[in-house]
Amino acid sequence: MKLTRRKFMHLATGAAVPPALSNIAWSQQAYPVRPIRLIVGYPAGGPTDITARLIGQWLSDHLGKPVVIENRPGVSGSLATEAVVHAAPDAYTVLLAGVWDTINATLYRNLNFTFLNDIAPVAGLIRYSNVMLVPPSFPAKTVPEFIAYAKANPGKVNMAAPGVGTSQHLSGELFNMMVGFNMTAVQYRGSAPALTDLMASQVQVMFDAIPSSIPHIKSGRLRALAVTASARSAALPDVKSVADFVPGYEASGWNGIGAPKSTPNELIVRLNNEVNAGLTDPTLRARFAELGGTTLPGSPADFGKLIGEETEKWANVIEFAKVKPD
Fold first, then answer.
1. How many CB atoms within 10 Å of residue 324?
2. Is the pLDDT score of 20 beyond 60?
3. pLDDT in tens, 60-83
4. CA–CA distance, 121 with 106 (Å, rounded to integer)
5. N or C: at which end does the chain have fewer Cβ atoms within 10 angstroms?
6. Is residue 7 classed exposed, middle or buried when 0-12, 13-18 and 19+ CB atoms within 10 A define those classes?
7. Can you list the positions of beta strands (E) in 166-260?
8. Domains of the chain by range and CATH?
9. Could you tell me which of 172, 130, 106 has the C-alpha nearest to residue 312?
10. φ and ψ at residue 2, rounded to 5 degrees
């Protein structure tokens, strides 16, 4: 999918041009002159909120004005996105965007905005892998063995998922689509109860976020078959990738910064430069690594390309699996 974004409109020509242009140039040069709001679509305390607070503190320190984190949970992150869509395009209200935005674009048919068109990509932040897990009693110890078992035992493999349309749920549905069988998704209200049933062998497999899974992997209560990113995770260096056995498979969560669509390019570039500077800082990189992620430096166009590719990929998975929101 080729990503498009409306260009910043030039002021009309005429006698008013010099002062108007001068005012815009002054405001962009002085940015920021007041606090910036970073809107987050999930509650305080979770990995998404922690990501926002880490980059928010960096930006506060280096832009010279506070970056205030505002949590607006609801509709799988879409309430926060809508708030930024309707904010003034002045880079004082920005979004912690995530993989959920590209999923919601297809999952929810009645949103009051189109993420691809109404949010301008600013900068990528972090990409993090899920991990494919089975209980120790499950006979398969590798991904090929899992595939062989599931094909030999149709209807006997149930997949735990911490909510319809989550990255973890769709990681499993992508696996279904690419391997050619249909594990039954069993939905839970969050990872904790799903992991509990997985450890008790009430379900047979789960694709979960690495940070919540690592304690159970290290204790031996769960077995990690593979990570879902295209490369191994530093948090689980001995665990191979699903792509090692299913070529082309890739499923990751990610976060980045977005802004209202008509935000001047000069302000987007300013924020992008500051974010990228943070992503090279060893301390900030280490904190992101603790969340099981790797940094996503690059230009606004790079982040926009990721958004476009992810929107298309998850649309295909949702349509294949006939996923419907709760």
1. 10
2. no
3. 999 999 999 999 999 999 999 999
4. 19
5. C
6. exposed
7. 184-187, 205-209, 223-227, 252-260
8. 17-128+253-321 (3.40.190.150), 129-244 (3.40.190.10)
9. 106
10. -90, 120
